[in-house]
Specification:
It is globular and about 70 Å long. It starts with 16 loop residues before the first helix and ends in a 9-residue tail after the last helix. Helix 4 (75-81) crosses helix 17 and helix 7 (158-180) packs across helix 16 (425-432). 48% of the residues are buried. The chain folds into two domains: 17-220 and 397-466, no CATH class; 225-386, no CATH class. It has 475 residues and is an alpha+beta fold. Strands 8-9-10-11-13-12 form a six-stranded antiparallel sheet. The chain has a three-stranded antiparallel sheet with strand order 2-3-5. It has a two-stranded antiparallel sheet with strand order 1-4. The chain is built from 17 helices and 13 strands. InterPro entries: DUF2252 (IPR018721). This is DUF2252 domain-containing protein.
């Protein structure tokens, strides 16, 4: 079935529940659930290294080697940076034709904790750089593959890994079927706060794991603007400024690019805050207006995002105990846009913000977008949010298998809830059915894709060793 694309119409609108269920069952007949086990890379498509090199052309040249250095560390870090090659692979995979607002990069490290406006810790998807309407299966496959690859990196036995993969997809399937019987408002308000996570997903944790979880939650609550102030600033000339820590953090005055005048760059980036303000709701503009711009710096983030232009902006309220750190992150076309219909938004920052608001239960109060002209002679799109607001992610590398299983289930439930907000849970639930056919098929896919991912990682390592790709060690 063909892939549908939308950014303004909710799937299933105008149809009866029976018609929506029939639509899902018809899709099952046309695209059998077992067919999702298939993974065959088309020989005519560009190699992963060529696809990654295409992305390099729009990135900060001096940061690109850091990206490859991070990706080369392990098959798992390679996978995190290879959203575009996987999108190319998924573009020829079976699709039910049922569309959702897709994350586009739903690997397990792109889920985590953050604060709601009511100051409750919420677990949700936390990266939307690649979001676009598309097949729900693509997100499920990327999530399952990430768990399989992480399990291999952690040395889990094959049987354990398959159990994790199947449990994750089963949770997605069962959650989607539950959302199919819920009201639209119940789906919209569904969320996983910390108390829900404790009650449902941590029952099997050992006492030691429970204590570690509590320490993690306590640490997350310290990751706020005051914590960022202590970590990223220094006293200078009687005031505060962001401290350079090259190449991770480089103050605008310390950027040595001969094509960039620091004063002009500072002025242009200052426009970000002024123009971005207009994309906020009036009450949030009033809150932003209580803060004054102080300083900004370029910041290296993530794995796949290394080389995109990302700025941290320090603002202060009444005094130095009232800081606000904003992150302005460059937004370009989604990796999915090469294989699906392009976004209907001409501003990529707006694409990210709209997708995030559709998929997340609650979003950052300072979430907004902007387009700025004049940076290196080009117009660039950005989206802005708080740099830190009780944000935290799981320590995947130290997780025992049963904890990973529960974590995968939590991610599966969260992804189903995000898809149910924009897609048609009745049709998708009917397609998935009550049997485990889809769960097992995706586990097969995850294992096959993990094998391919290892070959792709080896190809990157060989290219680095030969000098064909320049990489720098992680910093």
């Amino acid at each position: 079935m063909g892939v549908m694309s939308h950014e303004s119409v909710i799937e299933g609108a105008g149809l009866t529940r029976a018609e929506r269920a029939a639509r899902g069952k018809a899709a099952r007949a046309e695209v059998p659930r077992a067919s999702h086990a298939e993974f065959v890379r088309k020989s005519r498509r560009p190699s992963p290294l060529k696809l990654l090199a295409r992305q390099d052309t729009s990135r900060v040249p001096e940061l690109v080697p850091i990206r490859y250095g991070r990706m080369a560390v392990s098959p798992f870090t390679y996978f995190r940076g290879a959203a575009l090659p996987m999108a190319a692979d998924l573009s020829t995979s079976p699709s039910s034709g049922l569309s959702v607002q897709a994350c586009g990069d739903a690997h397990l490290m792109n889920f985590g904790l953050f604060a709601s406006p009511e100051r409750r810790l919420i677990f949700d998807i936390n990266d939307f750089d690649e979001t676009l309407p598309g097949p729900w299966e693509w997100d499920v496959k990327r999530l399952a593959a990430s768990l399989e690859i992480a399990g291999r990196s952690n040395g889990y036995a094959a049987k354990r890994r398959r159990g994790i993969d199947v449990a994750t997809v089963r949770e997605y399937r069962q959650a989607m079927r539950e959302f199919a019987s819920a009201t639209a408002l119940d789906v919209w308000y569904a969320h996983a706060d910390v108390e829900t996570v404790r009650a449902v997903y941590t029952q099997n944790l050992t006492a030691a794991s429970q204590r570690k979880l509590e320490r993690t939650l306590a640490k997350v609550r310290t990751r706020d603007n005051l914590g960022a102030l202590r970590r990223y600033t220094e006293t200078y000339d009687g005031g505060l400024r962001i401290a350079s820590d090259a190449p991770r953090v480089v103050r605008v005055d310390d950027i040595t690019d001969p094509g960039q005048d620091p004063g002009e760059l500072r002025a242009r980036l200052g426009e970000i805050v002024r123009a971005y303000r207009e994309t906020l709701e009036p009450e949030r503009r009033a809150l932003l207006d209580r803060y004054q711009y102080v300083d900004l710096a370029r910041k290296v983030v993530g794995v796949g995002s290394v080389g995109t232009r990302c700025w941290m902006i320090l603002m202060l309220g009444d005094d130095e105990q009232d800081p606000l750190f904003l992150q302005a992150k460059e937004a370009g076309p989604s990796v999915l846009e090469q294989y699906l219909e392009p976004s209907r938004f001409d501003n990529a920052g707006r694409r990210v913000v709209t997708g995030q608001r559709l998929m997340q239960t609650v979003s950052d109060v300072f979430l907004g977008w902007v387009r700025v002209g004049g940076l290196d002679g080009r117009q660039r799109d950005f989206y802005l949010r708080q740099l830190r607001d009780w944000k935290g992610s799981a320590e995947i590398e130290s997780m025992p298998p049963r904890n990973m299983r529960d974590y995968g289930r939590l991610c599966g439930w969260t992804l189903a809830r995000a898809h149910a907000r924009s897609g048609d849970p009745i049709a998708i639930g009917a397609y998935l059915g009550s049997a485990t056919v889809f769960d097992e098929a995706i586990a097969d896919f995850a294992a096959a894709y993990a094998d391919q991912n290892e070959r792709d990682h080896a190809a990157l390592a060989a290219a680095i060793a030969s000098g064909a790709v320049r990489a720098e060690p992680d910093v």
